[in-house]
Design goal:
Layout: E1 2-7, E2 12-20, E3 25-34, H1 36-40, H2 47-69, E4 78-84, H3 88-104, E5 109-113, H4 114-125, E6 133-138, E7 143-148, E8 154-159, H5 165-175, H6 182-192, H7 215-230, H8 237-263, E9 267-271, H9 278-291, E10 294-296, H10 307-318
Parallel strand pairs: 1-4, 4-5, 6-9, 9-10
Antiparallel strand pairs: 1-2, 2-3, 6-7, 7-8
This protein binds 5'-O-[(R)-(carboxyoxy)(hydroxy)phosphoryl]adenosine (KG4) and zinc ion (ZN).
Zinc ion binds at residues 114, 118, 139, 272-273, 305.
Length: 343
């Protein structure tokens, strides 16, 4: 089956074509038009600018994706699009484009959840990966621990109560004058700095839930840097990045370790833009080795937002036979099935 998929939930417009069957999902094209340089001027994503940039890019990247896959629209069996969660204006561009294309060409349409899409990036690279497993999804907008019961049934068992990890990385990076988005540069700085330079407050909430809170950690560092600058102290950005990153990694390891123990599952899957972080990857490798848990991490190219991951999830969703009509809408947030695990 050939799937043409669209992703436009934030600041990347992507169109991808995959060939999928029960044995494997092969990416034939995965075109990503990034808006980073536009939003960098403002130090963060400006929703209205994002929507307009999606409108400008989506048609051209669709042609590009089909051309690279050496296919035409008439060869496509399924169209997929992210419809939630994300920036509403940005999502609507992808949803309306996909709807128009699907109905004008009489191709079935499937709406895909962005978070499930991030997890599905792993199905592309690891055909042996099968639910059930625990997934950790961390990006600029989301930080969740998810129990993946089947390819289509997921339960959120832990989540951030405020800032997402990517958001915290980006804000700390911004305050230190690093280019937007700060996550990637923070990763590089942390590799040079001394992680034992300071102790910062944990992002793992000290209760029996699997929840996080990263806004306190972020604010602590922002205040710390402001105080230092007012006193004229020269603080090493590398050391701050290293100590901050260590705190994030320790917090994630603490709650994921509990999530694995409570669910009894022996497979952990990383997903989302922050799963590109080299220190987090190393920390989770270490934890999984100790706990004898199998760890799957997407390659860097599939960590961030992309259409191929949406196509991968759409393949499994399409088996439910629930296709979308012209009334398909986009949703900025979605009520997800949530279970709280108590020990
Ligand atoms: O999944 P994604 O591309 O978009 C959203 O759905 O939000 O994630 C983007 C986020 C940004 O906050 C970015 O700074 C962060 O992922 N990120 C990183 C790294 N690479 C990207 N954070 C930490 N370390 C990295 N290497
Ligand atoms: Zn994302």
């Amino acid at each position: 089956m050939y799937i043409l998929a669209f992703e436009s939930s934030c600041d990347e417009t992507s169109a991808a074509v995959v060939s999928a069957n029960d044995k494997s999902i092969t990416v034939l094209s995965n075109i990503i038009a990034s808006q980073i340089s536009v939003h960098a001027l403002y130090g963060g994503v400006v929703p209205e600018i994002a929507s307009r940039a999606h409108v400008e890019a989506i048609s051209n990247i669709t042609y590009e994706a089909l051309e690279k896959a050496e296919l035409e629209l008439k060869d496509i069996d399924l169209i997929a699009v992210t419809n939630s969660p994300g920036l509403i204006g940005a999502l609507l561009v992808g949803v309306n484009f996909a709807k128009a294309l699907a109905f004008a060409n009489n191709i079935p349409l499937v709406a895909v959840d962005h978070i499930k899409g991030h997890i599905a990036a792993n199905y592309i690279e690891y055909p042996d990966l099968k639910p059930p497993f625990v997934a950790f999804v961390a990006s600029g907008g989301h930080t969740s621990i998810i129990k993946v019961n089947s390819y289509t049934d997921t339960e959120t068992i832990g989540r951030t109560r405020d800032d997402a990890i990517g958001e915290a990385f980006d804000k700390v990076g911004r305050i230190m004058g690093l280019p937007y988005p700060g996550g990637k540069e923070m990763d590089r700085f942390a590799s040079i700095g001394d992680k034992s330079f300071a102790k910062f407050p944990s992002g793992a909430i000290n209760d029996d839930t699997l929840d996080f809170s990263f806004s306190g950690l972020k604010t602590h560092i922002v205040n710390y840097l402001h105080n230092a600058s007012q006193k004229g102290e020269d603080i090493s950005k590398e050391n701050v990045a290293a100590a901050f990153t260590k705190t994030v990694c320790d917090s994630v390891v603490a709650k994921l370790s509990q999530a694995l123990d409570r669910t009894g599952l022996k497979t952990l899957v990383m997903a989302g833009g922050v799963s590109a972080n080299s220190h987090l990857r190393a920390a989770l490798c270490d934890m999984c080795e100790k706990k004898r848990v199998k760890l799957y991490m997407p390659s860097l190219a599939l960590c961030g937002d992309n259409g191929a991951m949406i196509a991968a999830q759409a393949y499994h969703d399409s088996k439910l036979g629930e296709f979308s009509g012209t009334d398909l809408n986009a949703y900025a947030t979605k009520v997800t099935k949530r279970n709280t695990f108590h020990s």
